[in-house]
Write a structure and sequence with these properties.
Keywords: Repeat. This protein is mostly beta strands. About 10% of the residues lie in helices and about 35% in strands. The chain contains 1 helix and 12 strands, in the order ββββββββββββα. The chain starts with about 25 loop residues before the first strand and ends with a helix.
C-alpha cells in the first residue's frame, strides 16, 4: 500500500501516475485535521487501460503486375509487432479515379484480381494486432499491363528460345 499526502487541503482531486497498464488498483481517502485522521472512505477499485501498442509498419512492400487485370502484392511482417499480428489490411487506390478499396489478408501476400487494364494503382499495407491497425506502409505504385504487353513468364520463354536458336 502506498499513501500520498495532498499538500493543499482545499484540493479535492489527485492524479496518480506511474501505474501499470491493465492492472486493478484500490483507492481510499482519509481526511486529517488537528485531532488526527478521520474515518477512511470505502475503497474505490479502478482498472487502468491497456497500453495501446499497435504494430509498426510492414516491411519490404512489393507489387508486380501479373496481367492486364491482376497485381501480386507481398510484404514482410513489422519489425515491432507488439504482440501477435492478427492479420493485415491491404488498401489500393486506382488512378485517376481515386477509388479506394481494401481487403483483410491473413498471410504475407495477396493477388489483386478484376483490375482495369493499363491503370495505375497505389498500394499500402498495415498490420493489425489486438489493439488495432498499425501505421500504413509507404505507398507503392504499379500499373497493370496493356493487352499487348507480354507477361514476365512470356518474356522468359521468348528469351530462352532466342538463346537456343544461337
Amino acid at each position: 500500500e502506498r499513501s500520498v499526502n495532498v499538500s493543499e487541503p482545499e484540493s479535492l482531486e489527485l492524479t496518480v501516475s506511474n501505474l501499470k497498464p491493465e492492472e486493478t488498483y484500490s483507492f481510499r481517502v482519509v481526511a486529517y485535521n488537528e485531532a488526527g485522521p478521520g474515518e477512511s472512505s470505502a475503497p474505490l477499485r479502478i482498472a487502468t487501460k491497456p497500453d495501446l501498442q499497435v504494430p509498426s509498419r510492414v516491411e519490404s512492400l512489393r507489387a508486380l503486375a501479373l496481367s492486364p487485370t491482376s497485381i501480386q502484392v507481398s510484404w514482410e511482417p513489422p519489425s515491432l509487432p507488439n504482440g501477435p499480428v492478427q492479420g493485415y489490411r491491404l488498401l489500393w487506390t486506382e488512378s485517376p479515379s481515386g477509388k479506394e478499396q481494401s481487403v483483410e489478408v491473413s498471410g504475407l501476400n495477396y493477388k489483386m484480381d478484376g483490375l482495369n487494364r493499363f491503370t495505375e494503382y497505389t498500394v499500402r499495407v498495415l498490420a493489425i494486432n489486438r489493439y488495432g491497425p498499425g501505421t500504413a506502409s509507404e505507398s507503392v505504385s504499379v500499373t497493370t499491363q496493356s493487352d499487348g504487353e507480354p507477361t514476365p513468364i512470356q518474356l522468359v520463354i521468348s528469351f530462352n528460345l532466342l538463346t537456343l536458336a544461337d
